[in-house]
Amino acid sequence: MLTTTNTDMKSDKVDLSPREEYLFIGNSEFYYNTLKPLFSRSNFVSSLQDAKSFMLQTSSVPDMIVIDTKLNHLELVEFNVWARTNHLHKIPIIYNQKMLAHFQVKQLFSQKLVEDVLNLETNYRKLSYKFRFFQKIGRLREEDKKMPEKPMHLEATKVGFTTRLLDLVISSCAIILVSPLFVIIPLAIRLESKGPVFYSARRAGKGFKVFPFYKFRTMVMDADQRIHDFDHLNKYKVEEKQPLFIKFQNDPRVTKVGAFLRRTSLDELPQLFNVIRGDMSIVGNRPLPLYEASTLTTDAWAERFMAPAGITGLWQVTKRGKEEMNLEERILLDITYARTRSLLGDIIILLKTPGALLQKTEV
Fold first, then answer.
1. pLDDT of residue 96
2. Does the model's pTM come out above 0.85?
3. Which residues have CB under 8 Å from 41's CB, separation 6+?
4. What are the start-end ranges of the E strands in the chain?
5. Using the 8-state DSSP alphabet, how is residue 116 labeled?
6. Which residues sit opposite 214 in a β-bridge?
């Protein structure tokens, strides 16, 4: 339930101008009554999803966001990505320390998901000084106080309708053409190892939308549980606080049939159904596992989520299978695609895709 309260009440000790406004996310009656005198305008919602809806409906941007809910890490990451892709990333976010464990505080700071953590029960008056500090350093300028005229949320894209139509046509035709493989490949997988034929995992796509991502199973059954046993084989060597990508060279968890499916990209055929469902597009940035996606929330990286998730994309046709590709290159290619995406560009990538299907190395 969305509730909005505007008030002219001001603290005797704090002199605030009328435009100073904050958005409170939570359900605490205590903080509702305690915090609103500190700002000339106060808006209250119960969740991050309600906060997005409120900002879109009112076309207003608060000077500060205060969160007083139990931490849902993925939801907060999604909110940050949404804010950045809508150019709203300069809004300071303050989290109530009472709602967080110590390791969660470290996580929020290391991933730059909040500006500060504050014990609201004992230090709530410091919010006004926090605001003045962020205002002084230019964290939120006056020109940032309006929502974009055309927010870049999931449905808003210049080529969206035409691309969606092409996605449906191409994926439907492809499923019909390769339908015999949907019989042969499952038989080969089952002959080598017991277990399900299809593999489904949660992945993050455009705007950090999380969806079930389908592939033919190419690994042994306990592959997910064994992932950290092979950290020394990780192709992407990154330092702490950098984005986390995991890609094993000559992955020992891959079966013999799975290795063939990966080299020929046949393991990705079930993603055609993701396209039919609307989770993905034929061309786009690869949807990321959540442990990778949750580390790409800073200004430098989050822009890659402006583009749709895709089966093929810019980095696949330019760098796929090349050992010299590093972490920065891969993300920058994703960002480049997000910035320059066009229907003609997608067609060019599609035409280049067949030549990229056979990888030069097992990576």
1. 92
2. no
3. 6, 7, 18, 19, 20, 21, 22
4. 3-6, 21-26, 41-45, 64-68, 93-96, 116-118, 198-204, 210-216, 281-283, 288-289, 310-312
5. E
6. 200
Burial class (CB in 10 A: 0-12, 13-18, 19+), 185: buried
166, 347 in Cβ contact below 8 A? Answer: no
CA distance to 157, 281, 307, 342, per residue, from 346 (Å): 14, 10, 12, 6
Instruction: Say how many C-beta atoms besides its own lie within 10 A of residue 306's C-beta.
Output: 21
The fold of the 3-144 domain, in CATH, is: Rossmann fold (3.40.50)
CA proximity to 189, closest of 222, 218, 148: 218
CB within 8 A of 105, min separation 6: which ones? 97, 117
Domain ranges of the chain: 3-144, 160-356
Whether 221 shows a pLDDT value over 70: the answer reads: yes
User: What is the average per-residue pLDDT within 53-72?
Assistant: 87
206 contacts 279 by C-beta, under 8 angstroms = no
Does position 301 have pLDDT exceeding 70, yes or no? yes
Q: Which residues pair with 66 in a beta bridge?
A: 24, 94
The answer to whether the CB of 32 falls within 8 A of the CB of 124 is no
Give the Cα-Cα-Cα angle 291, 296, 302 (nearest 5 degrees).
140
- Which 8-state DSSP code applies to residue 182? H
Residue 246: CA atoms inside 13 Å, Cβ hemisphere, count?
16
Question: Residue 17's pLDDT is what?
Answer: 42
Single-letter amino acid, residue 214? Y
Q: Look up residue 190 and give its amino acid.
A: R
Q: How far apart are CA 222 and CA 253, in angstroms?
A: 9
Helix axes 73-85 and 48-58, enclosed angle (nearest 10): 20
Cα 274 from Cα 203, distance rounded (Å): 11
Tracing tokens 């605001």 back to the chain, one arrives at 131
